[in-house]
Amino acid sequence: MKKFFTVLSLSLAAVSTMQANVFTTSGDGTTYTLASLAKIENSGVTADGNVYTLSDSLVIADGDQFQLDDNAVLKLADKATCILFGDASFEVSAATITRTDDDAKPNQIELRKADAVYGFQNVTFEYVGVKSFETNSLYFDNCTFTQYVYQNRVSGPIAIGMTGSKVVVTNCLFDRNEYSSVVGAANIKCSMVRVENCTFNKSQQVNRNMPMLNLTPGDSIIVRGNVLHGDSAMDMVGGISVANLMGLEGPMFVLIEDNEIDSCRYGINIQGAISEAIIRGNRVTNNRFVRNNDANNGGSGIAIYDASKSMNLKVSNNYFENNLWGVTVIGGGNINLGKIEVDGVALAEDDPEYNVGRNTFKDNGHDDILVDLAFASGTDYLTVYAQNNTWNVAEQTEEQIEAVIDHQKDDATLGLAIYMPAYVEQTTGISAIESLQPSGAAFDLMGRSVERAQKGRLYIREGRKFIVR
User: Fold this and answer.
1) Cβ neighbours, 10 Å, residue 465
2) Is the CA virtual torsion 400, 406, 411, 417 positive or negative?
């Protein structure tokens, strides 16, 4: 008990710098709702029908619980914070958490109970975000986060605060938020993060050098079936990034699969020491909006960078169109863009090095030069297999493919690409491919990902056909 009150008092000291009045629940096992809090004098919560206003910060003590009221509208005043040391559920049929007025800048919902499970379902967040401060489990389903404004050093509507956390985000919309929509600090290694079937629309409006989805690697990071659409006016905003910038150690698995990424500074960035990473089935298009129109400032469909030379990455079944670069390799360990044979001997499909390839490149380039695959200077030690792909050439011959790959044969300081044999079934060349969609993904008329369970159905979006296989 003494330890609890020490932690709580430290938190209240921090809150008191923002609000003069902080109401703390009793800690005796009571379950609180907005309706019940509104009946308590000095709770800071007032009610007008189903509209509740939190005028000062609120603390749910350890031992107590909070349950968000169904169909409630919760308005937070300027600098108001909701701090949860106890359990809580935000699972409702519908609810909105927003600010009191245009001048209010409320703080976030703070989750501070270690090992707790916090669930959010069918909640719309306007100008307000959620941050975990402990190792706990969070899941968000069918929630909307819109127009989040940076507050109290929290730079995203969903902020992951501690190593070992588990976060699941499904079927959510992130719309025009100031900073990255799901973000973990660079020194945090999560136990598990899964982001699936979400839409990111023009988020990261502050236009800093950040992606819309900004994660550190962990035991299991899965980013699958999402739609990310950037803003052509935002020349610093990337799509998806999973980056080990602080040299985090231990086994790490990353899967980036079946996403649509369009109109960003770059599509996918994967960076640092990662023991196993897979990027497959993504549609990466029109990522070319870079500062001063300088291709050296970005524009990659996929950017691969690992100065430690220890990343293990397989890339397959992706479609790249109209990016400034198709794939750029700035460093790495075992980077595999397709490997079906070695020295003319076919690999068995169960060989650990086997990778089907089947990446397709169309109209990637800049300054009237087509660039499907490029290495950075100083990567001469690196050999990358890139077999069984469809390159942006009329005929999949070695002579023609060489023209769209920038590697050791052009400059001795660059890495070497082994790209033959190419994928040969497309006998008419790249011009025959008008609307290739990676298998396993489809998108409805609103641009949101369609559940894979709807097998075999045909969807039409913007005049193109997509089939779920």
Assistant:
1) 12
2) negative
How far apart, in whole angstroms, are the C-alpha atoms of residue 91 and residue 117?
12
Q: Which single residue is written with the structure tokens 């609180």?
A: 32
Show the tokens assigned to 41: 């004098």
d(CA 164, CA 186): 13
Give the closest residue to 322 by CA, choosing from 367, 366, 285, 270.
285
Q: Which residues of 343-370 are buried (b: 16+ CB within 10 A; e: fewer)?
A: eeeebeeeeeebbbbbbbbbebbbeeeb
384 close to 416: Cβ distance less than 8 angstroms? yes
Q: Give the model's pLDDT for residue 18.
A: 41
- Residue 359 tokens read as 């990446």
Q: How far apart are CA 183 and CA 155, in angstroms?
A: 8
With contact defined as beta carbons under 8 Å apart, do 111 and 135 qualify? no
Region of 252 (left: φ > 0; alpha: ψ -120 to 50; beta: rest) is beta
Q: Among 45-54, 364-373, 391-400, 454-463, where is mean pLDDT lowest?
A: 454-463
pLDDT of residue 153: 57
CA distance 307 to 312: 13
- Alpha-carbon distance of 394 to 344, in angstroms, equals 24
**Residue-level pLDDT at 455:** 30
What residue numbers bound the domain in which 233 lies? 2-467
pTM of this structure: 0.86
Q: What is the Cα Rg of the chain in Å?
A: 24
The DSSP annotation for 269-328 comes to EEES--SEEEEES-EEE-----GGG-GGG--EEEEEE-TTS--EEEEES-EEES-SEEEE
Cis peptide preceding 421, ω within 30 of 0: yes
Number of domains in the chain: 1
